[in-house]
Write a structure and sequence with these properties.
The protein contains 12 helices and 15 strands. By secondary structure, the chain is α/β, with parallel strands linked by helices. The chain has 2 domains: about 120 residues, Aspartate Aminotransferase, domain 1 (Alpha-Beta Complex); about 240 residues, 3-Layer(aba) Sandwich (Aspartate Aminotransferase, domain 2), CATH 3.40.640.10. Helix 2 packs across helix 9.
């Protein structure tokens, strides 16, 4: 049978490595209502090739939505509609870099972004992190050595570490970008999934510097299947991106999905759905965290998340997450081993667990199985 969804889950295995919500959480009714609203307008323009920067009315209502959510002004002229963050990142690489250029990434970082950078033949250099996210103080020496063209960061509820960059570090990073003429590409998909302590303003607040592109996505706040997102940047940067051959050939990306998202915002369906997501993830994060605390006597530790999808665990000294995964599969649980997120394979003592897909009871059972696997590994010669 041909597949319909990207992820295939093994029966009987709790897949804590999967990084998306369960099907039952997706907004079927909301998008049915949005679809009926859009098609009832007797305006077929959203079925045509779209404007290069994306659907104009969506850019307007999205600017208003982001202004409310971010607490800062966002201009429609500063938004380009993308085919999600992955496509946006590919587009930025295509138009702002050349093969052989250097891109800085956090170590650890979103592992699938590394493939996009390598597709563009960029040299990837990992940057040190601590409990407060990217260690900006270490950057000047690394900038002098490598002269990056881009710096890719996930500043809020980072994937996979869950850390959030402070206001002071954000400001210092923008100053360094201005001084050394590199572009900060901020992947801000988890900023709106905050359910704990409020983070600093998103990097959208600094697009006026000319050195920042802020990437957002409806995948995390509405539905991944829309394949729809946005780039927030200065109009000159957006015009450069829109000159890409793919966009010039076919026009703006995902006009049909854009029409549905537009109606979801206009009908005020997105705001309450987003609040529902935050409430659900808050409880699931709590359940996973409480379960992981029971493994503290085994030497496992973690930082409680304030948003996003993930908990990044630190394993006892001498325990490698790849070896633990082999043992975990035998007892029916999986996760993402740490080195998958590290360009230099420096994260072997860590692992990423996701709480977005499963309910609270399944998360607790998954941790019970993880503890069983860890006990077996610690007891082995």
């Amino acid at each position: 049978m041909l597949k319909s969804v990207q992820t295939s889950l093994a029966e009987g295995v709790i897949e804590l490595g999967v990084g998306h919500p369960t099907l039952q959480m997706l907004p079927l009714r909301e998008l049915q209502q949005a679809s009926a609203h859009r098609f009832a307008q007797d305006d077929p323009s959203f079925l045509q090739y779209g404007a290069e920067l994306g659907d104009g009315p969506l850019r307007q209502v999205l600017a208003q939505f982001l202004g409310r959510q971010y607490g800062l002004p966002v201009a429609a002229q500063e938004l380009l509609i993308s085919g999600g963050v992955s496509q946006a990142l590919d587009l930025v690489c295509a138009m702002f870099t050349r093969p052989g250029d250097t891109v800085f990434v956090e170590d650890p970082t979103y592992f699938l972004a590394l493939g996009i950078f390598r597709d563009h033949q960029l040299r990837v250099v990992g940057l040190p992190m601590d409990g407060g996210g990217l260690n900006v103080e270490a950057l000047p020496a690394l900038i002098a050595e490598h002269r990056p063209r881009l710096l890719y960061t996930i500043p809020t509820h980072q994937n996979p570490s869950g850390t959030t960059l402070s206001l002071e570090r954000r400001e210092a990073l923008v100053r360094l970008a201005q001084q050394h003429d590199f572009m900060v590409v901020a992947d801000e998909v988890y900023h709106l999934l905050t359910y704990g302590e409020a983070p600093p303003p998103p990097f959208s607040a600094w697009v006026g510097s000319g050195q920042v592109l802020s990437l957002g996505s409806f995948s995390k706040i509405l539905a991944p299947g829309l394949r729809l997102g946005w780039i927030h940047g200065l109009p000159g940067h957006l015009e450069r991106l829109a000159a890409n051959g793919v966009i010039a050939s076919g026009g703006g990306l995902s006009p049909l999905s854009a029409a549905l998202a537009r109606s979801a915002i206009e009908l005020r369906l997105l705001d309450p759905y987003l609040e529902q997501l935050r409430a659900t993830f808050r409880e699931r994060a709590r359940a996973l965290g409480e379960a992981l605390e029971t493994l503290a006597p085994l030497g496992l530790s973690f930082q409680a998340p304030q948003g996003g999808y993930f908990i990044w665990i630190t394993l006892p000294p001498g325990v490698d997450s790849a070896a633990l995964l082999e043992e975990a599969v035998r007892v029916g649980v999986r996760f993402q081993p740490g080195n998958r997120f590290s360009p230099g394979e420096m994260q072997g003592r860590h692992a990423r667990l996701c709480f977005a897909y499963y309910g609270e009871d399944e998360l607790r059972e998954g941790v019970r199985r993880l503890g069983q696997a860890l006990e077996r590994l610690l007891a082995s010669p």
